[in-house]
Each structure stands twice: as structure tokens, then as C-alpha cells.
Amino acid sequence: MNHQPLPLRIRDRPFVWGQRTYLMAVLNVTPDSFSDGGEFNTLETAVTHAKALINAGADILDIGGQSTRPGALEVSLTEELNRVVPVVRSLREDPGFATCPISIDTSRSAVAKAAIEAGADIVNDVTGGTGDPEMFSVVAALGVPFVLMHSRGTPETMQKLTHYQDLIGDITEFFTVQIQKATAAGIQPSQIILDPGIGFAKTWEQNLDLIRNLSQFQTLGYPLLVGPSRKSFIGHLVNQPDPKQRVWGTAAACCAAIATGSTDILRIHDVAEMHDVCRVADAIYRPKT
């Protein structure tokens, strides 16, 4: 399969792949996420920040209640639900968010179901469906888009699992297997978005190789989401231990991802800055239609 993915419509917003880069803004309602843990983990601060992200130009809001930074410990199901569901519900009840697509960043089917029922629209699973055997069937029943990401192990173990026979080939094989499982469970192919998982079970050199070769995933025929924002490989390259000070490095990675001609969505923290980066990069690298 090698074709332009079918457009998606989420809350009356069209997502036409290939025309421009869409921005998925990160909203971590956790005390321990790698770059902004503890900043937005109350209902009031989360809602205020969500509004700022949308006003800055985000196309999708991605809400997560479980840190996936390297070494992070898993929280209980109850804790994750208590972190994310009230935020989703509060945003959806706000008239200003009536048409804003909301994604739930979780690897638990119970959290996915509760968040979608509270008003979320997309399930973003960093385990690509390997973390919960019920995820595919639950997402199929919900009938919502599914972001299928490549990773290995858990946040505690993933950076010990970085050996690949063929980085791009191994990730492509993972995608192929998981897409087959997802569609067999009833998820529509047009609802699947792939994420190669930058920073997840990859060394800094492998992350660079991954960005250089993003176009190879186009043969699968699905839209591609890429998440380089503030990642440690950028910190390594610019000798910057503070993730918040990696904005310029993130901008370079985002521009490079767009230049490959295969990136449809960028998952980012610094929305205003990356909005401008994407508009200029899109004008340069995307052909006029």
C-alpha cells in the first residue's frame, strides 16, 4: 500500500493529510513529566494552559495523566482516571472548546473509554496497542482515531532496549503487525495514525536516523505523527539539560521532519514558536496543490 491517506474529520474540523502540518499540543496533568511535571496538574492550571495552547495555534490538545519519561513509574488506574477525566470534561463543557479535538494520551483501555465518554476524540497510545490487550477492541467500539506509536518495554526499561537489527525495518515490521491486529479488531484503516516514537527505546543517534528516514514510512499509507519536542537527543546535541531551553533545537527537528515530506502532525510543547516554524517550513517544502 502506497497512497495518500484519507482525510479525517474530527468535530467538524477537516484534517487533510499532505496539505499542511498539524500541531498536537502536549498537556501533561502529571507531577513528574520530563519537562513540565507539576505545572498543570490541577484542574484550574490545566484548563488555563489548554486555552493558551489553543489560542497559540494548536490543532489538537493531547492530555496525559501518566508520565512516559525514561524511568517513570506507573501510576494506578484510579489515579490516572482522576487526573485526566475531570480535565477533559471541564474543557468539553466550555463553549470555547466545542470544536477543539482532544486526544487522550494513555495505554489503558479503561482510561481511553472514560476519556472518550467525557468528550475526548482521539486515543494516543505510546505502546501501540501492546500495553493493554483490550485497547484495540475498545477503540474499535468507540469508533475514534487511534495513534499507534512504536516503543519497547516500559518507561522504566525502554532505554535498555535500544538494539535493532535494522531500525527503520524493525519499526516498519512493528507497525505492520500492530496495524493488522488493530484492523482485525475493527479499527478502520482511515482512523489509524502512526508515530515512530522518537525518544522511546532509541539512542540519540537512532533518533537522528529516524528523522532522516521518516519518508520510508510513507509506503505504509498512513498519516505520520512525529514527537521531537524538547527530547533528550536535542539536549545531548546542544548540551542543554533543561528541557524548556531546547526550543531552538526542537524547531530544527520539526523543520527537518517537515522537509522529509512525510510528517502530518507534530506533537509539541511550545505551540506559538512551532506554529511559526511549521508555517514557514510548509511554505518551503510542501508543493502547491
From TrEMBL:
<keyword id="KW-0289">Folate biosynthesis</keyword>
<dbReference type="GO" id="GO:0004156">
    <property type="term" value="F:dihydropteroate synthase activity"/>
</dbReference>
<dbReference type="InterPro" id="IPR000489">
    <property type="entry name" value="Pterin-binding_dom"/>
</dbReference>
<keyword id="KW-0460">Magnesium</keyword>
<protein>
    <recommendedName>
        <fullName>Dihydropteroate synthase</fullName>
        <ecNumber>2.5.1.15</ecNumber>
    </recommendedName>
</protein>
<comment type="function">
    <text>Catalyzes the condensation of para-aminobenzoate (pABA) with 6-hydroxymethyl-7,8-dihydropterin diphosphate (DHPt-PP) to form 7,8-dihydropteroate (H2Pte), the immediate precursor of folate derivatives.</text>
</comment>
<feature type="domain" description="Pterin-binding">
    <location>
        <begin position="21"/>
        <end position="279"/>
    </location>
</feature>
<keyword id="KW-0808">Transferase</keyword>
<keyword id="KW-0479">Metal-binding</keyword>
<dbReference type="InterPro" id="IPR011005">
    <property type="entry name" value="Dihydropteroate_synth-like_sf"/>
</dbReference>
<dbReference type="InterPro" id="IPR045031">
    <property type="entry name" value="DHP_synth-like"/>
</dbReference>
<dbReference type="Pfam" id="PF00809">
    <property type="entry name" value="Pterin_bind"/>
</dbReference>
<comment type="similarity">
    <text>Belongs to the DHPS family.</text>
</comment>
<comment type="pathway">
    <text>Cofactor biosynthesis; tetrahydrofolate biosynthesis; 7,8-dihydrofolate from 2-amino-4-hydroxy-6-hydroxymethyl-7,8-dihydropteridine diphosphate and 4-aminobenzoate: step 1/2.</text>
</comment>
<dbReference type="InterPro" id="IPR006390">
    <property type="entry name" value="DHP_synth_dom"/>
</dbReference>
